[in-house]
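Q: What structure does this chain adopt?
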Amino acid sequence: MNPHWSAYAIVFAVAAGTTLVATPLVRRVAFMIGAVVAPDARRVHDRRTPTLGGAAMLVGVLVAMGVAWRLGDFDDVFAATSEMVGVVLAVTVIWMVGVVDDLRDVTAPAKLAGMIVAGSILSLSGLSLLVLRIPLLDVFVLSPDLSAVLTVVWVIGMANAINLIDGLDGLAAGIVAIGAGAIFFYGIELVNEDVLEASSPGPLLAIIAAGACVGFLPHNFHPARIFMGDGGALLLGLLLAASTISVGGRTGEEFTGQTYFFFAPIFIPLFILGVPIVDTAFAIVRRASQRSSITTPDKGHLHHRLLALGHGQRRSVLILWLWTALLSVTVLVPTYTGRGVLIAVFALGGLALALYTVFAPGVRRRRHRRRVEELLEVHPAGRALTRVRATDREETAT
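A:
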């Protein structure tokens, strides 16, 4: 029996509400133990900010799972007890890895080892990739060994993608909320079409991840009062990995209504989570070209580039949220309608958003420059003061 929509709504509300209430408590604890991030040349915030928000998200996730377990609607999901127990253990392990890195810098190999352990727990519990559909080729049934390896790789990739995009207030939480929501709706449609079994935990994990992010956002949107830290980012990455594996990596059956870009369920996260995944790819290429480690932090991420264009933090975050929503809708519309005629509309929307992203700051600067010049023509005495202020800014920058 498929879970009713109201059951998913309850679980979502519990995850969001618990995280919302737990975050201020975690914030106080973070200040007490000194788990705060000070401003520096690499970061964009300007005050000491606690960084254990992932702990509140973990509480929200665990409480929501407990409520779902007690609801009769998810009996089929919890029938395979080992899978959900594995998710809980893997989430806890990867969160602990992130928290240790938040409190004291952990070497990249040690952090990677923790991710491998979390991914291995997920695979050993039974929640692992079973099939892999490669575009223009075929559907490949994975051997047990290859299934375990690719499951771990998927967890590492998704966790690092979310971790890398977590650079502005509310950015990662908002992108994951949108992406997880899209994965949830897609999974529900596959269940309704009998392509995916009702026992799949994918939709449940996706809606829990979305709820935790929604509950955290009021405390994390600019100006953020708390950061999710590596603990929160890695936790969300693992939940997304588990949900996408459950939705896209466990059925080889074709689903009618897919368009040419809709290759297969396993690749849907590449579209839905396009922003962090593209950012990850660019970060690796950028750091390799500079002959630096891929773990070396810099200010070359997409969100840093938006700031350099003249967008403020809030506008930069909203632009990237819109990109993620556009990618999500582009995937979901053909899924629910069976038609791809609206692709042109979304392409035009993406183009308009790109034009705004690139040109709007320049337009505002040119307008501001013209207004200043007009004022100087009316008040010539202001020219000297303007030159003095410009000189002061140049000296401060150097």
